[in-house]
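Posting this for the archive.
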Amino acid sequence: MIKPTLFVLAAGMGSRYGGLKQLDEIGPSGETIMDYSVYDAIRAGFGKIVFVIRETFAEDFKNKVLSKFEHKIPCEVCYQAIDKIPQGYPVDPKREKPWGTNHAVLMGKECIQEPFAVINSDDFYGKESFQILADYLKTLEGKQNQYCMVAYHINNTLSESGTVNRGVCQCDENGYLTTITERIHIEEKAGQIVYPDQDGQDVVLLPDTLVSMNMWGFTTDYFEHSEQLFHMFLKKHSEELKSEYYIPTAVNTLIEQGTIKCQVLDTPSTWCGVTYAEDKPQVIMKINELIRKGVYPERLF
């Protein structure tokens, strides 16, 4: 059985690198959130880790990040850049950032030949989520157009420090994703989870509403589909300064076309991340609690 690959979106770390939240120490031995993701992926049965970063900090990344665990699991690095797009599309020279999460995924095409997962580098997803995702991806060997997404209960993804934005999922009777709708400024208010509608009126979300935290599983045909959709995106948006090509946009389009099916995998895990600076102590507290329960060792690598 082929082991799936974990693809980690880390290009957003930027050139200032060491001062960014992706490398904040949240574990007792200096571990980052990304270290916990790699640890969870290894024990869930992933066979390789691929990171997409910016080439400007490649040397630092290899020395400060890969050196921790490349002896534990095969690792590869690919690079995202503004100019890594198909020829023939005009790009505004004032553009400062690459083209979003699904552009980042396209950078991994040459590194990945097996079913693969995609995660953010700065989100703590939890042990159970990696196991659920790995187990599903192992069933996809030799298959095409069958994707999955790990979905969290909205009440397990809130921040005590402010509002959050989440992709609210709709599923059919068989648990396949039908659409993701981005909802912004979600918060707990008077004992309910709400977001404002266009008129500023609160809309209530049930605590077990399923949301996307950008934890996906794909078969390799996703690269071909994404390239075709990226051409369509660039025809409309290549000269814009800040437009981005996102994973949910591509997946929604492929579902609407009837090209793919995306199984929604319900997880009991509690997500956490440093959305706000004030969130960091809560993340540290959660990690320490999991260590006390024996979920993680005091030192990962």
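The chain has seven helices and 13 strands. The chain has one domain: 5-292.
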